[in-house]
C-alpha cells in the first residue's frame, strides 16, 4: 500500500481503536480539570467518537455504492487479512479490537458471502486460520480507493504532518488506556 493510502487507513483504524477504548472505559472519568464536560463538544472522547462515527458512515455508504451489504467492521477484517495474510481468529480479534463472539459472527457472515475461508491450522489442529478468498481480495480492492477518496475529502486542508501527529497521538492515547 502506498504511503498516503496507508496513512489514511491508519487514521481510520486509530479512530476505531479510540472509539472502542471509549466504549470500554465509558464509566471512568478523566479526573483532570482540562477535560471539562461542561463543553462536551470539545471533549476529546466525544470528538473522536463523532469522527469515527462519521468515517464509519462514509465507509458504509462507499461499500453500499458497490452493491454490497458488507459492514464497515467487516472491512477491517478483509483489510487485516490483506495486510497480514493468514491469521487465527484470536489474532484477527486482537488486530481489529473485537471480542471473540463478535469476530465469530463477522467471520460467519464473511464465509457465507465467500469473502474469507476458515480452515484448520496445519501447525496446530486445535486452531482455525482465516484467509481471504479471491472474492474477498477483490472486494477489499474495490473498497480501498473509495475509502481513500472520502478520507482525502475529510482530511482536506490538514497537512500530512498534522495527520501523522493525529494518528500518533491517538495511538499513544489508546496505548495508555
Average pLDDT reading: 86
- Low-pLDDT runs of 5+ residues are none
Q: What is the makeup of the main sheet?
A: 3 strands, antiparallel
Q: Could you say which overall geometry the principal axes of the C-alpha atoms support?
A: globular
Roughly what percent helix?
Answer: 55-70%
Number of domains: 1
Structural class: mainly alpha
Distance between the termini: 29 Å
- Give the H and E element order: HHHEHHEEHH
In the CATH hierarchy, what is the superfamily?
Answer: Winged helix-like DNA-binding domain superfamily/Winged helix DNA-binding domain
Task: Briefly note the CATH topology name.
Answer: Arc Repressor Mutant, subunit A
Outline:
This protein is mostly helical. It has helices at 3-24, 44-65, 72-84, 89-96, 100-112, 134-154, 160-176, and strands at residues 87-88, 116-120, 128-132.
Describe this structure in words.
The chain is mostly helical and 177 residues long. It has a single domain (3-23, 36-176), classed as Arc Repressor Mutant, subunit A, CATH 1.10.10.10. Helix content is 66%, strand content 7%. It is built from seven helices and three strands; from the N terminus they run H-H-H-E-H-H-E-E-H-H. The chain has a three-stranded antiparallel β-sheet with strand order 1-3-2. Strand 2 (116-120) and strand 3 form a beta hairpin. Helix 1 crosses helix 2. The protein is globular, with a radius of gyration of 17 Å. The protein starts with a helix and ends with a helix. The mean pLDDT is 86.
Amino acid at each position: 500500500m502506498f504511503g498516503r493510502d496507508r496513512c489514511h487507513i491508519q487514521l481510520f483504524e486509530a479512530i476505531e481503536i479510540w472509539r472502542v477504548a471509549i466504549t470500554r472505559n465509558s464509566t471512568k472519568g478523566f479526573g483532570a480539570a482540562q477535560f471539562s464536560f461542561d463543553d462536551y463538544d470539545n471533549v476529546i472522547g466525544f470528538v473522536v467518537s463523532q469522527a469515527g462515527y462519521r468515517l464509519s458512515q462514509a465507509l458504509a455508504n462507499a461499500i453500499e455504492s458497490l452493491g454490497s451489504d458488507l459492514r464497515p467492521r467487516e472491512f477491517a477484517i478483509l483489510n487485516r487479512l490483506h495486510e497480514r495474510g493468514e491469521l487465527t481468529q484470536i489474532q484477527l480479534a486482537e488486530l481489529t479490537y473485537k471480542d471473540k463472539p463478535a469476530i465469530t459472527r463477522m467471520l460467519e457472515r464473511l464465509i457465507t458471502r465467500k469473502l474469507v475461508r476458515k480452515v484448520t491450522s496445519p501447525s496446530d489442529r486445535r486452531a482455525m486460520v482465516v484467509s481471504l478468498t479471491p472474492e474477498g481480495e477483490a472486494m477489499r480492492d474495490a473498497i480501498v480507493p473509495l475509502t481513500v477518496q472520502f478520507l482525502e475529502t475529510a482530511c482536506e486542508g490538514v497537512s500530512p504532518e498534522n495527520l501523522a501527529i493525529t494518528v500518533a497521538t491517538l495511538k499513544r492515547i489508546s496505548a495508555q488506556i
